[in-house]
Design goal:
Mean pLDDT: 84
Number of strands: 3
Radius of gyration: 17 Å
CATH topology of the domain at 16-73: Arc Repressor Mutant, subunit A
């Protein structure tokens, strides 16, 4: 199979609100939401870290609430206090 014939995952132009309504997301959709590369998501799965996932044969699926909950837990705030 030549390089041009290899199938690459396609990112469909969908909004975050449309993705929130889906029960499961594929790795390309999770990559678009989180900003992580697909290869990083695959590496995280191999190392058994990152976002929990489900496998159906070769297909990898992430539960939508798990993806958004993980993002919320990584939220960083800066507490600005005046120095007395």
């Amino acid at each position: 199979m030549s390089t041009q014939q290899k199938r690459r995952p396609r990112v469909e132009a969908t909004s975050i609100n449309e993705l929130r309504n889906k029960p499961y997301l594929n790795e390309v959709e999770v990559s678009a939401i989180t900003g992580k590369a697909v290869s990083t998501l695959r590496n995280d799965r191999f190392l058994r870290r990152g976002i929990p996932y489900l496998k159906d044969g070769k297909r990898v699926m992430y539960r939508t609430p798990d993806v958004f909950n993980r993002m919320e837990r990584q939220y960083i705030t800066f507490d600005v206090r005046e120095v007395e």
